[in-house]
Amino acid sequence: MTAVAPAAPPAGSAQQRAGRDLSLPAWPVTGILLLYPLWWALGLGVLIFPLFAVPMLVLLIRRRAAGRPLRLPPGFAWWAIFLIAAVVSIAALGADPAQTVVERAAGRLPAVLYKLAMYASLTVLLLYAGNLTERELPRRRLVRLLAGMFVLTVLGGLLGMVAGTFEFTAPVEWLLPHGIRSKGFVRSLVHPYAAQIMDIVGGEKPRPAAPWGYTNTWGNNFCLLVPWLMVAAAATHRRGRRVLAWLCLLVSVAPAVVSLNRGLWIGLGVVVLYAGIRYVLAGKLWVLGALALAAAAIAVALLATPLGGTVQARLDNGKSNGVRSFLIERAMDGFADSPVIGYGGTRNTLGGRNSITVGESSECERCGNFTIGGNGQLWQLLYAYGAVGTAGYLGFFGYGLWRFRRDRSAIGVAGSAALVSSFSAMLWYNSLVTPLAFMVLAYALLWRNWIEGKTTN
């Protein structure tokens, strides 16, 4: 579903007579991205998205009411199908699939409403960012903001490396009653910390997480944002900024390796392979030389530093493989039992993968009661929203990749690479909240590139 960019209002229209400025301010988008370290430190974090969605929605409605049409992104009908399926699936919230913890629907409702609120907020972000004009928010500025988020990710990774136990009580957290802020889910939203301390390769070690809350989210965002750093570096005319960008990219290798995040490593490979193919097909064969040089530099870094041993240790220790296989099997069993609308949300397994009598406890928090659908966006879509919701979600981003496939600009290749990496990441990462936010912003940039008709910038 696509709306054509509106023509200028006729002379003498009510809009002109009223002298109203119907331009959309850029501050809701720039405020989220530019000030995200502040939101994280305050304890708002991902909660900033629904908070900023309110003024964005008001501004869109106000402009629409004044006679300015609202543009919808190509393929938006697919996304609408996903949202409708997510709402309809609530009807199955009271169902207790086999070998899952029995719970009343009311107890599952808060988590479901949270996810729906986030999906709705990011829908507003998509529409708002896509309806901004080049005058209101230049695409190059949005690219720089996303590149800045990659820099923030790297800084958070370095913090997790050198101060893995760093954490503090945020102001928002202080305002919450103890009974609420002590809950694990609430704590994950409002309590800032640098890293997750986990035993992956022998002994508990910090895995970078700041400012995204989880190591897996950190790795997912790393892959989604790194293309924008490359675009920003290539577009700048200031040598100093370009050098800093390349230095940031070089430094980022350390936290990327220390994170022990195999999904991140695979995702980076997908991004590089996709972007390389796109540029080679466009006749830019020099990219092959650049990729070979980069690969050689990384290989030398791994061999000459302890990072190589860290990578090998992670590859030799696949402790999570069994749990992931177990959860995928449970997700597919649930999908087979409720293939159309799913179950409205995730469920916890009854026990662990070896016995239903093994459960989570204070002594062993990861021994059982695993979350079905918590090990990848694809499995969550199938389990929670069924075939209809999954088709809507995948159809939207898949349609975008197809629709904008001829965009050979730097923005076009970077945006497409980000979306392609998200398709591989959904096998082991969940997308809410910040990864999906960066996905819709990538979609908005591809969409605006298409609207402006500039696909070579």
UniProtKB/TrEMBL annotation:
TM helices/strands, residue ranges: 38-60, 72-92, 112-130, 142-166, 218-236, 243-258, 264-281, 288-307, 382-402, 409-429, 435-451
Keywords linked to the UniProt accession: Membrane, Transmembrane, Transmembrane helix
UniProt key word Transmembrane helix: yes
InterPro entries, per database record: WaaL-like (IPR051533)
Name the UniProt record assigns to this protein: Ligase
